[in-house]
Give the backbone structure.
Amino acid sequence: MTQSCNESIGIMPFACIYVPNFPVAAALRAEPELRTRAVAILEGKPPLEIILAVNDQASRLGMAPGMTKPQAELCPELVLRPNSALQNSAAHAALLDCAQSFSPCVEDAACDTALLDLAGMESLLGPLPQIARALRDRAAALGLDAYIAVASNPDTAVLAARGLWGAGLCGAGTVARAAVTVIPPGEEADRLGSLPLQVLFADRVAGEEKKESDRLLETRLLEIQMLETLDRWGIRSLRALAALPEVALSERLGQPGLRLQQLARGAASRTLVPVEAPLIFEEAVELEYPIVLLEPLAFLLNRLLDQLCARLASRALAVQELHLTLSLENRPPFHQQSKISNPQFHRTLRLPLPMLDPKLFLKLLQLDLNAHPPGAPIVKILLAAEPARPRPGQAGLFLPPSPEPEKLELTLARLAALVGGNKVGALELLDTHHPEGFRLRRFMTASHHQPPKTKKTEKEKQEIKEVGTEELPEKEAKEHPAVTALRRFRPALRATVTLDEGQPAQVVCAKTKTIQGSVLWKAGPWRSSGDWWEREAWSRDEWDIALQNNAPQNASSISLYRLVHDLLEGAWFVEGTYD
Amino acid sequence: MVSAAAAQGRLFFSGADANPADVHPEVRALPDQRERTGTLGHFFPSTIKNHQSKILAGVTSASHLAVRPAPEMLSSGIAAINALTGGWPRGCLTEICGPASSGRTTLLLAALAAATRHGEFCVLVDASDALDPRSAADAGVELDRLLWVRCGEDAPQKLNQGCPISRASFAREVGTFSQPAFHLDRTGLKKTDFKENRSKETGLEKTRWKENRSEHRLEQALHATDLLLESGGFGLVVLDLSDLPPQQARRIPLTTWFRFRRAVENTSTVLLAIAQHPIAGSCSSLQLQLAPTNGPIHGWNNNPFAAGSLFPKPGHAHLLTGLEVTAELMRSRLERKPSRSTAAFASKTAWAG
């Protein structure tokens, strides 16, 4: 399409995204490896299942909606899949995400159709043909093969998009067909004229039809009767319908007939009914056979994560939390009917920062499931993402390097799998005098993008200016003298202590030969107690003692230990060594 | 600086195009010859030789090793150690050795405190799960910036990717939970069977179980260090093997240390390994040996059991106020040569004031 065409287009262009054979498209989105094969979607309760929708390949094999399952099974090349409401809703949400990523004014026209207002978008996204191609590419990235039409009014855009697919279907032998069209203003009637009349009464999805009210069903019946009437008149294309005299048409078919004629001429005008697409990002897959191994589960999770991240990326969002829900197989005992629904297994992955890396999420989920296996075969997978705005790209130029959040998260998960989830993290001291009064919490670097706050006096600032650098290790070392550290034995080593006038004189630790001998020096006791109001009350006397080091390599040295007398239990323990 | 034309071994004189500054003096001194050759290019063998020599002078031969720049240093947090070594070198492996009560943990916490004060993120891979959080806080470590990896024997059982989702189904399929008896992992250490039935342990089995536990911890510590170095971004990574039996620490393959050294090379990470004896061999750029000075305790002369003490003082008359430590520089592969090889420093207990 030329630039002059874009300029000649009115000020209110509309685009329509149409996904033909929507149930098939939803199934193919969940199973992309079936794209080259003939696929049919079944609906109904066994054994009365009928074909709901088929793709082009299945059409070429002679399959059509309405055929029964036994008829379909006669074709060995045909892949049959049940109609999945979860997959359909996920594909519909993806369709709306695609539209919403281009324009804020989006109408949810049908399950398989989305309309969007492109007014003012040319200055942002380029000329209309370019926008149309970008829409098609975005839909393809979300796993949907869509047809895009741009026109000066919404109904024309819908008809053109459906007509594009219909034209392609007529010429099924041709390999390439246009998936994008832009109709300049004034040429609507000409461009729509060749389309068959059935485009005006496009098939709706069976699932949607069921939900319609009785009034809508009546309208649908009237439309079918009108189509039959027009067919008897020999009106089989939109051009023929557009050429009929208005008065005569009104006399015979009434206002609905005139409405159809306006649509055929591309002259119908209406305003869009915009919808605010909810920020619900869920992907699901129902399995034909239960999964019993983690490896095939990872393949499915990978696919779901790819789709989820593509949807989030199209909305410029990232993931803050991932919720994995697995429906587990509930196999009842022999000759007993199961009336209980399948048990659910939930796992939640909380991320310290919004991220959008499907590979990272997959690895984190794998590690999590390794540590917490579901415990039963899986029949359904539901993956939901809690969206959040992406984090700002750069922290500070002059800050010390810190671990990348994505890498760090994966490393922490791997470390948790290696040593245990409760053994990795940042320390947090508790408000208690208990010797082990601490807990581990999640290690995060996100809250530390600001440099450490150290108040500097004027004198220090002057010194920094004189030296020319902030590194003053000697000064710093003087200000922060070394503190004698204690190394704890976890658990504390039980010891046998010989007392002399109430003071430890000899210590024998049965578990280790290195902590044995006469006490060379001692200080104490230092008494402490706490939590007497709890069941975990503690009361103890601490002694700092010096013993000859019995290790063969360090026989001449002396080691300092902390000896503890548990006053409640009456036992002695070597709690640690000063080092 | 050599012009592009000279670098190609060609020199053209094309009248207006020729820049007199680019022309070799020898060439400029021969106007007649230039006239004779006309405005087309002309080669002079001597000119080519001169320019070739200039080019070769700027190229480092493959047989010469590049000079390794002096690494940046991270403050150790102790003035005496800074004076001795200049701090901890970034991108290098530093080893701190010493027996129990020789000040290794004191030095470790001082380094962590200094690094976290400067805004670095640090990791402590604690093979013995021996860190005392109160001591760390007293030493001035910003606990938010310290990642503590506590190695222990109650780690989750490793499951491979092909494992069943249900342990019960696994038991049905395989019939037992037995693991491979011996195989080498990435760390090069042997994994051995873990006996479930401890009630029948004999003395020999007890010893073996202890060894297995230490091996398991060591394996965890090395694997964790691998993961953390691969992740990158940490200013200080400490591998604390202080309580590990020396015979087991020596069994760490040298290739592990080479891998660690290679992982931190050209990064701003300081890798600190703490053990009782040197174990990293030539992989460590800096090696420090710590030992208590004379008596390890302040006021050791007040020893109540010392000879000649007729009236021994009670325990509460004493107070452990700190340690005195001597550090000896055993190895330094850095450019900066220390003027002396020993340094002494003292540490104070938190309650000494």
Observations:
- Chain A has 18 helices and 20 strands.
- Chain A touches chain B through 94 residues (CB under 8 Å).
- The domain at 3-201 of chain A is CATH 3.30.70.270 (Alpha-Beta Plaits).
